[in-house]
Amino acid sequence: MMGAKYVKRNDVIFAGLLLRLFSYIIDVIILVVAALLISLLWNITFFQLGFAFLLFISAIIYFTILETSPWKATAGKKLLRLQVVNVLGAKIHLNKAVIRSFAKSIPVVLLFFLVRRLAGNPLYMWNYILIITSGLLLLGALITFFISKQKQPIYDRAFGVFVIKEKNSYRNDTVSS
Q1: Is the Cβ–Cβ distance between 104 and 127 less than 8 Å?
Q2: Domain map of the chain by residue range?
């Protein structure tokens, strides 16, 4: 890439867990509201499995489109002045964004099944398998986040993706060409 600036550890501030968590919460709220509005059009209630599928697909599309856009961020990340970049500091490629979005959307589905269970709806064996699998994936992401100097969960490490603070959101901007 011509004119791309390399991301070096001392050139950027990697987003910490709380910033990433808050941005994810904002994004999940946006996704749930959007899915609820769409479900009203399709006559799907919150506790039907169709809603979980709608939420999952919406999350993949939302994260993929916004993180590969010129913003390099979802609405939650943009509000908190974060960006999703590759090792060169450029926006990530579509193929990486789709798989990364798939991995990030699993906790949204986990949340749905937990809320569904708390509301007293029956869970079947495959629901438990999905919850356990999602929980293990989330645990793996957290463990790799804490052991990584660049604060990357496993799905970011696998694709060379970083979540950083925007350059104008911290002092002494010293990115070299």
Answers
A1: no
A2: 17-167
pLDDT tens digits along 19-62 = 888 998 899 899 889 888 888 888 777 666 677 788 888 889 99
CA 146 vs CA 8, 79, 166, 167: distances in Å: 19, 24, 21, 23
Main-chain phi, psi angles of 172, to 5 degrees: 55, 55
The rounded distance, in Å, linking the Cα atoms of 35 and 2 is: 40
pTM recorded for the entire structure: 0.73
Contact 100, 159 (CB under 8 A): yes
Token digits of residue 79: 């509000």
SS3 assignment for 3-36: CCCCCCCCCCCECCHHHHHHHHHHHHHHHHHHHH
Specify whether the CB–CB gap between 58 and 64 falls below 8 A: no
